[in-house]
Design brief:
Glutaredoxin; five-stranded mixed β-sheet; 9 helices; globular; alpha+beta
């Protein structure tokens, strides 16, 4: 009987130990919830800020749907973090290079942020003036939007004329920024859009995260991790 009591005591301690280890296990695991970007990419955020990057394209329907999440992520960022957008261009068949040029042009003119949601709607909304897809047939339209169409869109939104937009869109500065964006997208080893990267070092695996709350919690964890590493 004594030996049986001893056995149960050992089992109970083992179970308690297992429970304690499970409780101590980290919630976020490198290689599962996020991957290291090697080498780390240079930050575009303001000095002292931890960069939270979204790699996106206006031509990406998943990015369009992800905007609700992005709005929540931006609102949840701690004071020492900053959201930065990097436009991808790899899908040349669906006007991604055009939309990359459009975003970087608008960014230089200071009109990108206020027109960001409207740009998505113009491409993916019903009857959108910059639509690339026929929503009925779900096929690409034979006539895709041009940079002149984009210039008219921004001019109608205000703050810039068509001529001003086109001048910047066709400038050496914009060509350079497009190359820099492509280099960042490649450096992040971006698998798809949207992709989120923290501090140029940590690429989130959104497929392993369950909803916006987990995405926000992981971003906050990685921002804190990066902040601690800087001190």
């Amino acid at each position: 009987m004594k030996s049986m009591k001893s056995l149960w005591a050992v089992l109970a301690l083992a179970l308690l130990g297992g429970t304690a280890q499970a409780a101590d296990a980290p919630k976020w695991v490198e290689g599962r919830h996020y991957a290291l970007v090697q080498p780390a990419q240079q930050s575009q955020a303001a000095p002292g800020k931890v960069e939270v990057t979204e790699v996106f394209s206006y031509g990406c329907p998943a990015c369009f749907k992800f905007q609700v999440a992005i709005d929540k992520i931006k609102a949840s960022l701690p004071a020492n973090a900053q959201l930065v957008l990097v436009p991808a261009s790899w899908n040349t068949g669906e006007s991604w290079p055009l939309f990359q040029r459009a975003y970087l042009t608008a960014q230089q003119l200071g009109i990108a942020e206020k027109n960001h949601a409207a740009m998505f709607t113009a491409i993916w909304g019903s009857g959108g003036e910059l639509a690339i897809l026929d929503l009925d047939s779900q096929r690409l339209k034979p006539k895709q939007p041009t940079i002149e169409d984009v210039a008219r869109f921004y001019a109608r939104r205000g703050g810039v004329t068509e001529a001003q937009f086109l001048q910047v869109a066709k400038s050496f500065s914009t060509d350079t920024r497009m190359r820099q964006s492509d280099a960042l997208v490649k450096g992040y080893a971006t698998p798809s859009t949207p992709t989120l990267v923290v501090a140029g070092k940590y690429r989130l695996d959104l497929s392993m995260l369950s909803g916006n709350d987990e995405i926000i919690a992981l971003i906050q964890y990685l921002v804190q991790k990066e902040s601690a590493a800087r001190h």
